[in-house]
Design brief:
Structural class: alpha/beta
Radius of gyration: 19 Å
CATH topology: TIM Barrel
Distance between the termini: 49 Å
Shape: globular
Number of strands: 10
Order of helices and strands: HHEHEEEHEHEEEHEHEH
Oligomer: single chain
Number of helices: 8
């Protein structure tokens, strides 16, 4: 195995097996239509503002690592059914509207703590999600293949079509499913950046991109990318996040103080939840919603 394959590259990015293929795939992705409609983002902002005002809640669910083969009706419809039923339950319990968000149609890249893993007597590069390589524990499957980004785009497109068909077939449900995923794989996400006729930049791969804990840094390329798009964005935060960092994230990711623009997803656990309070205070002191 090439030593380069087992080195953890900066910011959780894979080392691709073929740079010429990578360049060709990125150009092809740029030519493809966006997966989401920029006009829908205004409606999403209106709903997220209601959450900020305490007039609605969010249900966000989905796979930790979505599989590209699970983009057909048989795989997608049960997920949307479950999301819909859960949203109904919470809406009744809380007597508030529920904004339904799926980790779906794009959760194909997976951050990893280690670059390699042991399987029996073999050392393998880790599986980084279907957008990068394959989970089968054999060396050939763990090659970082840029062609998988194109496969992921088409899987996301088919998943979205299935969701739209499902919703249209049930007009009595009054259901809107927003998509979200971790905007981890920069080669893929940069290829999904689009510009509207009036010059506004947005990420066409999902309604609601987020930044994971492993790439959460004011100097990370992920924060930089999401600070320059129209989409609402989110960050996962843990007990490792300082008040200074969260203040900087507020100022960089929501400098115009737009309600619904920025969401923090807390991951503390009961042993560290006491560390959340100083972060709430730091956010409130910025005056940024």
């Amino acid at each position: 195995m090439n030593t380069l394959e087992i080195i953890n590259s900066p910011w959780q990015q894979p080392i691709w097996n073929n740079l010429e293929t990578l360049s060709a795939i990125k150009k092809e992705l740029l030519r493809l239509p966006p997966l989401i409609n920029h006009k829908d983002l205004a409606h999403f902002y209106n709903q997220l503002e209601k959450v900020w005002l305490g007039k609605a809640v969010i249900i966000q669910m989905g796979d930790c690592a979505e599989r590209v083969i699970e983009c057909d009706q048989q795989s997608v419809v049960p997920k949307i059914d479950f999301l819909h039923n859960l949203s109904d339950i919470f809406s009744i319990l809380l007597n508030k509207p529920v904004i339904t968000v799926g980790r779906i149609a794009g959760q194909y890249a997976k951050p990893r703590s280690n670059a390699i893993e042991k399987y029996q007597n073999i050392t393998l590069p880790v599986w980084r999600g279907d957008c990068v390589n394959s989970p089968e524990p054999i060396p050939e499957a763990r090659i970082n293949d840029p062609k998988r980004m194109l496969i992921s785009y088409h899987a996301a497109s088919q998943t979205l079509s299935t969701i739209d068909d499902y919703i249209r077939s049930r007009p009595d449900m009054n259901l809107q499913v927003w998509t979200s995923h971790e905007a981890l794989l920069l080669d893929y996400e940069h290829s999904q950046l689009r510009t509207t006729p009036d010059g506004r930049k947005y990420l066409g791969s999902t309604h609601w991109p987020w930044i994971g804990i492993r790439t959460l840094d004011l100097n990370s390329p992920h924060v930089e990318m999401l600070s320059n798009i129209d989409n609402p964005v989110a960050c996962k935060i843990s007990d490792q996040v300082s008040p200074d960092l969260i203040t900087g994230l507020c100022k960089k990711l929501n400098s115009h103080k737009i309600p619904g623009k920025l969401t923090f997803i807390t991951r503390f656990g009961h042993k560290h939840i006491h560390k959340l309070s100083p972060l709430i205070d730091a956010v409130l002191e910025t005056g940024i919603p």
